[in-house]
Design a protein that fits this description.
Number of strands of chain A: 10
CATH topology of chain A: TIM Barrel
CATH class of chain A: Alpha Beta
Order of helices and strands of chain A: HEHEHEHEHEEEHEHEHEHH
Structural class of chain A: alpha/beta
CATH architecture of chain B: Alpha-Beta Barrel
Largest sheet of chain B: 5 strands, parallel
Mean pLDDT of chain A: 96
Shape of chain A: globular
Structural class of chain B: alpha/beta
Number of helices of chain B: 11
Order of helices and strands of chain B: HEHEHEHEHHEHEHEHEHH
Distance between the termini of chain A: 29 Å
Number of domains of chain B: 1
CATH architecture of chain A: Alpha-Beta Barrel
Strand content of chain A: 15-25%
Distance between the termini of chain B: 32 Å
Helix content of chain A: 40-55%
Number of domains of chain A: 1
Number of strands of chain B: 8
Strand order of the largest sheet of chain B: 4-5-6-7-8
CATH class of chain B: Alpha Beta
Oligomer: heterodimer
Chain lengths: 283, 317
């Protein structure tokens, strides 16, 4: 442990972070687990959700990777939960994957990534059977979203990748499934617009992770959505806990609200499926 | 704050710091309520209004209070007005006045100069002689020129002759979330290396560099120049310790310790972002102090010393 005392520069102590019971929804460091572990420990992170589980395809290498990932999830069972990627351009294959990995396997949720073969976002009707099955399984539903400026004429969202959802797409999906918790990733990419896009859909949670830290962003989300609709991720290893925690510690929050955002809300979302899978989680 | 006072304040930060477990209790310290004296030099803050949003710590007094709460002793302040205003001298004058009026003695103004607009040399002279600024902060992508423009080299020479440091803002905001009517590219730093070969005494610091200055360009800047790199957008898990040890995830360089300086990019970014990096990385006291204050202090002192020598030489018969 470093000799550096963070409280002397107005930061929380290591113990303060542990007391917040931080659950990181956005973990990409499973392939370099040993390398990132010191940072996870140093920053007091209690649990991680890895969003890179499952792969695609039936070639032997992919199958071999899947086997390794299952073993790895078992090894890190006390620290890492697995979330698989689904593909709305292949709803049947996605459903089969959900059976293999969630119903009959160790994974606890699904992720929409974008960048698919066709321009099909999470708002497309292809998603209905996927969401229905996820609902039955109580799976965590994470949707990567962005609003990249671009296109011709240039507009917000015009620079998105093929099939990359926007927060407006999430709002459309949420309208069809008003009782299903949906997590809108990256705060919509452009948080000022993302917050407003999902605001009317109370079953949508907004995730702060994987974008630059802007002062006031979490204050704004809490004002519009309430702390009970904000969740958090570290986006390790391309981003940092510094980047991501700063968004939450910049905000004027009570301890209870910070705890909700940094893990409490996610625990509530994931609790049903974790219970099914035999985890004993204190909310 | 004039240049002499400013340099004195910078050097004062070389006193011991109190955020290490073994630091003596008599050393300077800051507290959560903002009282006491800090030790960090924040080389990257701005004053006035960000063009696209009202900022939480956008008012100077609120920003100063926030900086003091987090142990910042001195902050080098540019102006958001520099991004789009055409009356550059008005920008610089207001900045100097605001630092004087509401800076509580801790804000050092860095005026700006647009070397492709008329009478820019007079703007530089006023920054130096009228406003007593110790350096300038350039925003080439907003001010619409590239670093291979011949006037950029002229500006660098003249600033160096005056003993002024030069900051270059590589970017201000993730280009993916720009307003659709704002079409801006990050600064291409490639021409800077040749220019610095021709102006080797120039003291240049890149602010907000790490989103765009990567790969071979980063390696070349480290190897071929003496520019400093400000850390506010040095991301990647454990970014500080990993770039220092040459094991950063995507920045393929072993960064010498003396080339990194503390900066927050406040009030656009949370100050906590830069500070948490020192918790996330396992750093020695020597490494922390170098980045917090000593590198910036040395950078400034070198520029000022050269300026004093030149002035002395000029005054000799």
């Amino acid at each position: 442990m470093s000799e550096f005392d963070p409280t002397r520069v107005g930061l929380p102590s290591h113990q303060d972070l542990i007391n917040l019971r931080i659950w990181d929804l956005h973990f990409h460091g499973f392939d370099v687990m040993e390398a990132v572990l010191p940072y996870i420990r140093r920053m007091g992170i209690e649990r991680l959700f890895c969003l890179d589980i499952g792969g695609w395809g039936d070639d032997p290498e992919t199958r071999r990777q899947e086997t390794l990932q299952r073993k790895k999830l078992e090894r890190w069972r006390d620290l890492v939960f697995g979330i698989i990627r689904i593909d709305p351009t292949r709803p049947k294959a996605s459903l089969e994957k959900m059976e293999r990995w969630i119903a009959d396997g160790p994974a606890v949720g699904i992720k929409y990534q974008g960048g698919y073969r066709e321009d099909i976002s999470c708002a497309h009707p292809n998603n209905d059977p996927i969401i229905e099955r996820a609902n039955e399984l109580n799976a965590v539903i994470y949707i990567h979203t962005w609003l990249k400026v671009g296109g011709d004429p240039r507009h917000v969202g015009g620079g998105n990748n093929r099939g990359e959802s926007t927060p407006m797409d999430v709002a459309k999906l949420a309208e069809r499934f008003p009782d299903t918790p949906l997590i809108c990733g990256h705060a919509g990419g452009d948080w000022e617009l993302g917050v407003r896009a999902v605001r009317p859909r109370t079953n949508v949670f907004l995730e702060f992770a994987g974008s630059d830290p802007f002062s006031g962003s979490v204050d704004f989300a809490v004002k519009e959505l309430g702390a009970e609709r904000v969740v958090w991720g570290g986006h390790i290893e391309s981003r940092s806990y510094s980047n991501e925690l700063s968004k939450v510690f910049d905000a004027d929050l009570m301890f209870k609200q910070r705890k909700q955002i940094l893990g409490g809300n996610l625990r509530a979302i994931a609790h049903p499926i974790l219970k099914t899978k035999g985890y004993r989680i204190e909310l | 704050m004039n240049r002499r006072e400013f340099l004195k304040g910078t050097l004062a930060t070389t006193a011991g710091v109190a955020c290490f477990a073994h630091a003596a209790s008599t050393e300077g310290s800051a507290s959560r309520d903002g009282s006491g004296s800090g030790w960090i030099i924040d080389t990257n803050v701005e004053l006035f209004g960000w063009p696209h949003r009202e900022l939480k710590y956008g008012a100077t007094q609120a920003l100063v209070e926030k900086l003091q709460t987090h142990s910042v002793r001195q902050a080098w302040a540019g102006s958001y007005e520099a991004l789009f205003h055409k009356n550059i001298d008005g920008v610089n004058r207001r900045l100097a006045e605001e630092c004087q009026r509401n800076g509580r003695g801790m804000l050092a103004p860095l005026g700006t100069v647009n070397p492709v607009w008329p009478d820019w040399e007079e703007d530089l002279r006023r920054c130096d002689e009228d406003y007593g600024m110790h350096g300038i902060k350039l925003y080439p992508s907003y001010q619409n020129y590239t670093l291979d423009h011949p006037n950029f080299e002229k500006l660098l020479r003249q600033a160096t002759d005056r003993g002024m440091l030069v900051q270059v803002a590589v970017a201000m905001e993730d280009e993916r979330v720009h307003h659709p009517r704002t079409v801006l590219s990050a600064v291409d730093t490639q021409p800077l290396r040749d220019t610095l070969n021709r102006v080797p005494d120039a003291r240049v610091m890149l602010v907000n560099p790490f989103r765009h200055v990567r790969g071979n360009e980063l390696r070349a800047l480290v190897r071929e120049t003496n520019v400093l790199f400000e850390i506010s957008n040095l991301d990647g898990t454990g970014g500080l310790e990993r770039i220092l040890s040459g094991s950063h995830w995507y920045l393929p360089v072993t960064m010498p310790l003396e080339r990194l300086v503390f900066g927050s990019h406040a009030p656009l970014f949370p100050l906590e972002n830069a500070l948490f990096k020192f918790m996330e990385s396992e750093l020695s006291k020597v490494q922390c102090e170098a980045i917090w204050k000593e590198n910036a202090g040395r950078f400034l002192a070198t520029a000022s010393m050269k300026s004093d020598n030149r002035r002395q030489n000029r005054s000799q018969p």
